[in-house]
Amino acid sequence: MHDTPDPGDRGDAVCVVGAGASGLAAIKSLREQGFAVDCYERETSVGGAWNWRHDRSPIYSGTHLISSRPLTEFPDFPMPDTWPDYPHHSKVLEYLERYAKHFRLDQDIWFGMEVSSAVPAGDGKWDVTIRSTGGGSSRVQRYAAIVVANGHNWSPAAFEAPGDFTGQVIHASAYKDPARLRGRKVLVVGGGNTGCDIAVEAAQQATRVWHSTRRGYWLAPKYVFGRPADQVNDRLLRWGLPLRLRQWLYRRTVKLTSGDLTRYGLAEPDHRPYESHPIVNSQLPYYLGHGTIEPVPDVERYDGASVILTDGTKIEPDLVITATGYRPRFDFLAPELLDTDEDGRPDLHLHAFARRHPTLAVIGLLQPDSGVFPLAHWQSVAVARWLRLRVTDPERAAAVQQKESTRPVQSWSRRRVIPTQRHWFEVDHVDYLRSVEGLLNEMGSVR
Amino acid sequence: MKSDLVRFEDWTDPVPPAAREVVSRLPEDDIGHPPLLFVPGTSSPSFAEHWLGHAAGRGFSSYALSPRPGGDLRAQVHDTVQVAASLPRQAVLIGHGLGALVVARALGRYPARAAVLTAPVLSGWAVARAFSLFSRPVLPAPAGDPPVLVAGSPDDRAVKRKALDRAAAGYGGAPLLFPGMGHDLMLEEGWEEPIDAILDWLEKQLPMPGH
Predict the structure, then answer these.
(1) Phi, psi of A106 (to 5 degrees)
(2) H or E stretch at B104
(3) Torsion region of A318: left, alpha or beta (phi above 0 gives left; psi -120 to 50 gives alpha)
(4) Is ipTM > 0.85 here?
(5) Residues B130-149: pLDDT tens digits?
(6) What structural domains and CATH numbers belong to chain A?
(7) Domains assigned to chain B
(8) Distance (Å, rounded) from C-alpha A212 to C-alpha A307?
(9) pTM of the full predicted structure?
(10) Which chain A residues touch B if contact means CB-CB below 8 Å?
(11) What one-character DSSP code corresponds to residue B68?
């Protein structure tokens, strides 16, 4: 740096936003490609969403993985093989902390600093404004590229219902401890993994539990035939069974394991298996069978102490927990940089590469049918390789970009999913990884 | 289609855990050197006799993994990566004989800080017999592109000079040679010379604090 006239110009260094799992993977890959890296993390420790100490963490005390260990770990840094199939969130944090320490990633992380804006500065460079999380003065630094890994499970999607409610309403992000449910009448809104988990915890603690879902989902158990369900599913993929056959097998397997859930009053799924994000919960059917969870339809409105449901039923919970998910947010980037549409969905090549800004990439903006870490790892490898190729062989880089731009979206993003707010970045892990591998091969080396 | 990203075998049939035997010799002060993980082959003599203590004396935390009894190549690679990932910092992998094949395969799965293949047995009858493999094992591109050194003796009767050259060329280098020695570099008279040369090479390859 001593020969750069401007102290704010970091030369060829790359800026990484966030030190969660995706940011850590990005730092590691960029470094392997020889880049200097400055990573900014608004919290004072690594782990992002998986660090329950972070005020934006969506973790509740009972959170366990819903994908099994082999389908969740980084491909080049396995979790200990003595760990359980579905480790607790505290183990996942321990794993990320060990990953950061093992590869000395913390040397490149500036803790307690957040990025408040990033604007193109010409020639592929970025002017990044950084300030300390607690406020205070800010500074601008210039980087050769910016890799965004700010997570997508921290900004709660609001649940709107007309009317006034005299009871308490909280978003699932504010739910941490089952003690909060003890002795209360609880309505859980939302049929995703979090909604189902909280409904089960409520069944163990609350005096009465209603679980409101908008549609019927395919509820997979955590184990089938004595193996983690995702491992069994990947065996079908390994055998190359066509989607229709897998859908048929899925229906059969769910019938034989979870059973017919409409018997308990749940709605029939309005879509085929594999057309929505996998919901994995073995305990929900158990508590439905005990009658401790009462399935109910969508909420229509609040009315004083009551909640009116779409079938006209009136219930009187004293706590409503809305497990209505999260929205990705990139407040520090102008929407057009990521080609973000009016619903807040960026349009990125492989959900990672900005189409008009070759030195801007996003890591981990995916909802796969596996853990995210393996995909974030290979995205990071591809982004780092790409940034290196731009420097060493611009002609080839241009050819790769040309070829990649013709790749149809259907080849790497899910072909057919239900049209909801959350499903636009749903990917099939096998198809997705094959597409990233295609890009890596284009660039000349899989490393 | 053979894929390096889609790892069905690891996902659907993970190697079951086993008790792993790891002996270690640690230096008195941590001077910032990366840890060394020694991986012997099934018929290699122990690294613990001389090399482990010697490397610790030069400031390297040194660990040696015993091969899992009855473990196939995949299980041994798995154990190597598991132990490497359990060390506090990014490790250097050092294999001997068939253990060098295990290391060469583990390099595709774990981004080692560096790797050393001593008297490497990477193909042929010994491999076929030890692992019931009847095709030449494929050596993956090392993850993270670490420096890789091949070391051996031109007078080794088990691993000929030509095999050393070929192995080294695969990693874009030439072998480091210790004439007059046999296959078991870590046990024979003059065992200090190869381990010192390997540690010198490591110190030169890796920028370390205090050097």
Answers:
(1) -65, -20
(2) helix B98-106
(3) alpha
(4) yes
(5) 888 777 788 999 999 999 99
(6) 8-155+326-443 (3.50.50.60), 160-322 (3.50.50.60)
(7) 8-205 (3.40.50.1820)
(8) 11
(9) 0.95
(10) 28, 32, 69-71, 75-78, 80-82, 101-104, 230-232, 234-235, 237-238, 370, 378, 430, 433-434, 436-437, 440, 445-447
(11) P
